[in-house]
Amino acid sequence: MATDAVVSPQPESAREPSAGGYVQPAPDTAALQRVLDGRYAEVRDLVRRNLVDYAGLLEEAESLDRDAFRDRVLEVVLDIARTGQTGFGFPTEYGGGGDIGASIAAFETLAYGDLSVLVKVGVQFGLFGGAVLQLGTKRHHDAYLAGTIDGSILGAFAMTESGHGSNVQALATTATYDVATGEFVVDTPHDAARKDYIGNAARHAELAVVFAQLHIGGESQGVHAFVVPIRVRDEDGNLVPAPGVRIEDCGPKMGLEGVDNGRLWFSGVRIPRENLLDRFADVNEAGVYSSAIESPGRRFFTTIGTLVQGRVSVGGAAINAAKVALVLAVRYAERRRQFEATGDAEELLLDYGMHQRRLLPLLARTYALHFAQEEVAGRLHSVFSGEEDSERSRRALESEAAGMKAFGTWHATRTIQECREACGGAGYLSASRFAALKADTDVFTTFEGDNHVLLQLVAKGLLTDYAGDFQDADQFEMVRLVAGLALDEVVKRTRAHQLFERVRDLLPGGDEWDSEAGLRDPAYQLAMLRYREEQIISSAARRLKSGVDGGLNPGAVFSRVQPHVIAAAKAHQERVVLEAFLGKLDGLPDGEEKRALGLLADLHALSVIEEDRAWFLEHGRMTSTRAKAITREVDDLCRKVRPLARVLVDAFAVPEEVLRAPDLLGPVVVAAEQGDGDDAAHHTLGETAEQVADQA
Amino acid sequence: MATDAVVSPQPESAREPSAGGYVQPAPDTAALQRVLDGRYAEVRDLVRRNLVDYAGLLEEAESLDRDAFRDRVLEVVLDIARTGQTGFGFPTEYGGGGDIGASIAAFETLAYGDLSVLVKVGVQFGLFGGAVLQLGTKRHHDAYLAGTIDGSILGAFAMTESGHGSNVQALATTATYDVATGEFVVDTPHDAARKDYIGNAARHAELAVVFAQLHIGGESQGVHAFVVPIRVRDEDGNLVPAPGVRIEDCGPKMGLEGVDNGRLWFSGVRIPRENLLDRFADVNEAGVYSSAIESPGRRFFTTIGTLVQGRVSVGGAAINAAKVALVLAVRYAERRRQFEATGDAEELLLDYGMHQRRLLPLLARTYALHFAQEEVAGRLHSVFSGEEDSERSRRALESEAAGMKAFGTWHATRTIQECREACGGAGYLSASRFAALKADTDVFTTFEGDNHVLLQLVAKGLLTDYAGDFQDADQFEMVRLVAGLALDEVVKRTRAHQLFERVRDLLPGGDEWDSEAGLRDPAYQLAMLRYREEQIISSAARRLKSGVDGGLNPGAVFSRVQPHVIAAAKAHQERVVLEAFLGKLDGLPDGEEKRALGLLADLHALSVIEEDRAWFLEHGRMTSTRAKAITREVDDLCRKVRPLARVLVDAFAVPEEVLRAPDLLGPVVVAAEQGDGDDAAHHTLGETAEQVADQA
Questions:
Q1: Is A445 on the interface with B (CB under 8 A)?
Q2: Which H, E and C letters describe A180-227, residue by residue?
Q3: What is the full DSSP assignment across A303-369?
Q4: Residue A381 and residue A373: Cα distance in Å, rounded?
Q5: What's the whole-model pTM score?
Q6: Are the C-beta atoms of B559 and A353 separated by less than 8 Å?
Q7: What is the number of other CB atoms lying within 10 angstroms of the CB of residue A68?
Q8: Whole-angstrom Cα distance, residue B11 to residue B680?
Q9: Which residues in chain A are closer than 8 Å to B628, comparing Cβ atoms?
Q10: Do B438 and A442 touch (CB under 8 A)?
């Protein structure tokens, strides 16, 4: 590559053992890529090839008008569908790949490219196709799956309404059974009940899976899903809204303009009884409702629970979008010079301490999240393939998916922003990709479950040991659950006690475990995160209980305790992520890659502890001296990771064709007159292995 | 307004004195607006009227193609120029308003609307016009100012090059004096020296102020500014690039698509000797260079220093963009309901503790930054109007402008992001304004001085007591300055000592001052921020000195100390902002507005202290008990500010016409079936004054 001459990710000097015995690891890019790609390397490579074939789409996103771009996105989606890339998650008998894990890997990798394609794929195959597969039975599979997989049937997923997003149980659309005709009649009772932000609805979908309150004989059976034709062909063969269906375009959006989001209103729309997706409940011709799941709440949350794949997909995609940003920012920072320290050449941005601090902990966290996501995707696969499908594993999956989705998407927002700023004006040009990355990923934090609501779900599970329905986002129920218990029981119910025992197992150094262990001992790092998690969960439980006992109503109690509830979920998820990273490390063979990832895991873990050191100080689990030592260690780790940064981002294997960014990666931005080609010679800010080791 | 029936910003119950004697303040919106609008209320109202007149532009930004939108933006800029809004900063004899303070107020207020208009105004009147005014002399004023003010002359400001943004002294464009013809010859020696991201260059500008290395007789005199015609009329009267000038469009950008950013290359472009902007240096016909400022460095930084108005403008505009986001998010959160606590109606988002925590400290900070910005703008006015123009006041202005620009623009990025997420899917629609707010303001953090580089300037001033040239972004010079001094001298040179004495003046409670004062005592809050500032400055000075003494080269020293240097500047700026807020409060007459702003100042100050409580804990200036008390106080203040939130955002007086956002402010998103019109009745999450007081 043209840029290789300019950068020196691994200066020769750093390979010599220093006085302190520290030698920089020299990981191999391809070997690191194999660690990241894991079990589905071939699937990821298939997607990479498709991304290269359709790389032009990134420019078309800027040049085509909205309708043309939407049609072009659909065209690309249908083209890549033919390669099998989008069908991995469906049964082989309908033309799918029969491998849910592969389907997640493909989706994640697709996030390296245009994100309208990603979301369109998510709507058609994940949300619409997934609902038909998971909520329907053989009659629906036979009718729709083959067409969904090959794209001859285009569908939408009509759950959210203008008036209700997070609180799905309160949806207001109705489907009333008409026993006289054996049909359901679908209605939008008022304007706040219109279906809103529905992907594929404004332009392309013929069918929609519509979530509505099922009414039979004046009685409500709660929210169920129905297949509703929203468009039909007119006499000229054009798609027009079906009778009784009103469709409106949501209008321009911040990003994802290749996805045709729309609004739907239903007015007396009649569908056959068979269009109820009846895996968990059915209505017979006579209008008798039946379900194998007795409790209506349980039934609803079982229904919702099957849709967890969407969250796993979004979390993984977000992490990969963050990778693209890091590739750009790190490669730019290894080329771009600004200001002279000693009078010969200007310094590389990545040799500045602050620049390292801005980018390298984010790079470490990206690896951590990648491995945590790999675990969640693995669990999704084992649950949904039936390898390990139990009530308990479903709950665990739902909790992990919620936590990962929140963490992955917030990480993307933060990382893309930091990387854009680290690329200055050049990063502001659309050709540098940050424009689309920022705009397209922005909605990830609030769709497929608002991140705060998702973290509340996680916390509720932790606080009640899953006594309630996991998917029930009604946090007031948690307050009511707690209200009925004694304080001891509340705290015992939380999973905190088990955690604390595991802290003692990890570091048996008595009360001083936290100040005696080595900072770079993974057991210390994990013990800190476990201890924090335990404390915050217990404390949130106590606060809930004392609020209730103090006579405040459930609303006021929850309002006051909510920040602690969210903090509990975050602490939990941080521990889960670190465990995943350390677990992955444990399983790697000794070698340069393991050494490099070990540095990265330390950087990640200590950055997390440093960021929340106020909490540890407040809770007597850290001295000031130790807190300052952690900051020094993070600085030192940044210097050690700096020479590895290029290899670490190259291992993401984002195809060059989708990076674009001529002003970041091309030759122009380097102060070309000042010493191209022999950087190592005036590496004044960068330090040698000896200097780094002296710090250690 | 339609929405008034739905919200109850000031529930009646809250007005009754509670058991604890706490009564919610009841500020008047118009009175608060007067406090905010300050001295330039009329100017701001003029801009508000113009914003309403051209509110349609916000939709045109979405519907017009790029060229058409750029032309439309220019048209609007010229239209509003006719109202006098954009000319306040110019001398009256050329048709200006002769009031720099008014010019800043107008620019800030313009940020409520489309930001392409804002930036186009900034380029034409601030950068181009400002350079002619500040760097030119009468011949240039006579030739260009009247035309600049009325828009008949359109100009660009060509400083940044692809290879150099922050390091302006290293620009590579050359202007070589040809004594034979009495002309300067302007050249782009290599591709990294092309002028880049230049507003107005791609389409509209006829002239550019070009910054280039002045060469005379083989000798370089450093960077100077020249007026260069970049476009001329061809025989058909069309504007075409001038001979020797190559112009390229920068292409699509993340935002600000109404601004025509371009690239410029010069090849032997000849301009008359008189086109040198010669306020600080001149070249006579014979090619003899002369300047009243002897030192070339000093000359350069004096030149750059006159352009400080751009930074003041951007900082103020960013704060106002954040206000728009807060108006939307607060009004939405006062209407939008989700989840039932007690079975009658769902809860308002703003009654959730977490939602208060997300939005209200940002609202408080917006007020704080507004008042700090008002001070900087006031100083700009007094310096540039000659009221108080000294070396010292210029330095102070440059430092404050740099700090405010960084703080204001980062605050905008963060606030707009948080507010978007707080508005869910509806916030993602372009009609909700967040799309443009996010995309357009994004570049604010890196243009007009990269925020990190600006904070380094601030720190350098603090660390060297302004021994070097303030505008010199070369931080290695700071290291070299420090290198020559003894440690005592280094620390004495910083301004830390003075600060610490002021801490003792504020709270004379001995060593325990920090744990004995009341949390809501402004003297305590200020003492904490001063102490932190003093400590970090001293510590950064010590680290610099010990790095140098330890034999590291200046590059390595600076790289290591850089995060501390940035932290010093941030600590300084936080103190400056809080002082401004408290100073403003002091000057207000007693009353409901002062009481409301007092709560807000407490919320701001304690949020800042809470956010960095790790530092205070580490440095022995806070106990764990106190840290937790601060968190409780912030929670309590959030509950007290919550009923005021609507009035506080209404006082920004953002015209309804530019808010758009039908899905956030209109009736649809409220769960209309569930109890519109009598919110107060089921205000279960919201607490009464008694309950709030019980906490206090």
A1: yes
A2: CCCEEEEECCCHHHCEEEECCCCCCCCEEEEEEEEEECCEEEEEEEEE
A3: HHHTTHHHHHHHHHHHHHHHHHHHHHHHHHHTT-EEEESSSSSEEEGGGSHHHHHHHHHHHHHHHHH
A4: 12
A5: 0.94
A6: yes
A7: 12
A8: 6
A9: 618
A10: yes
With vertex at residue B388, the alpha carbon angle to CA B387 and CA B390, rounded to the nearest 5 degrees, is 140
Which residues on chain B are in Cβ contact (under 8 Å) with A190?
672-673
| B413 to chain A: closest CA residue | A417
Q: Would an 8 Å CB–CB cutoff place B341 in contact with chain A?
A: yes
Could you tell me if A220 lies within 8 Å of chain B, comparing CB atoms?
no
Q: Any CB–CB contact under 8 A between A166 and chain B?
A: yes
Tens of pLDDT, residue by residue over B21-64, are 789 999 999 999 999 999 999 999 999 999 999 999 999 999 99
Residue B410 has pLDDT above 90, yes or no: yes
Helix (H, G, I), strand (E, B) or coil at A481: helix
Burial A78-113 (b: 16+ CB within 10 A, else e): bebbeebbbbbbbeeebbbbebbbbbbbbbbbbbbb
Statement: residue A496 has pLDDT above 60: yes
To which H or E segment does residue A177 belong? strand A174-178
Nearest CB partner across the interface for B563, out of A162, A341, A354: A354
Q: Which residue has the tokens 């208060």?
A: B356
Nearest CA in chain A to B476: A341
* ipTM value: 0.94
Question: Which residue carries 């103190």 as its tokens?
Answer: B575
- Give me the residue from B555, B559, B614 closest to A627, CB to CB: B614
Say yes or no to pLDDT of A63 above 50.
Answer: yes
Residues of A in contact with B164 (CB under 8 A): 338, 671
* pLDDT mean across residues, chain B: 90
**Higher pLDDT pick, B683 / B69:** B69
- Whether residue B447 lies within 8 A of chain A, CB to CB, comes out as yes
Of B550, B602, B66, nearest to B360 by C-alpha is B602
- Cβ-contact B40, B373 below 8 angstroms: no
Q: Is A561 in Cβ contact with B451 (below 8 Å)?
A: no
- Quick one: how far is CA A188 from the chain centroid? 32
Q: Secondary structure of B115-165 in the HEC alphabet? A: HHHHHHHHHHHHHHHHHHHHHCCHHHHHHHHHHHHHCCCCEEEECCECCCC
Q: What are the pLDDT digits (tens) for B568-594?
A: 999 999 999 999 999 999 999 999 999
Q: Report chain B residues whose CB lies below 8 A from the CB of A451.
A: 421
**In chain A, which residue's Cα lies nearest the Cα of B433?**
A254
Give tens-digit pLDDT for A131-175.
999 999 999 999 999 999 999 999 999 999 999 888 889 999 999
Q: What is the mean pLDDT of residues A329-357?
A: 90
Listing DSSP states for B44-101 in one string gives HHHHHHHHHHTTTHHHHHHHS-HHHHHHHHHHHHHHHHHTTTT-TTS-GGGT----HH
Tell me how far apart the alpha carbons of residues B605 and B621 are, in angstroms, rounded to a whole number.
Answer: 16
**pLDDT tens-digit profile of B455-495?**
999 998 888 877 766 667 678 878 887 777 777 777 777 77
Share of chain A above pLDDT 90, in %: 77
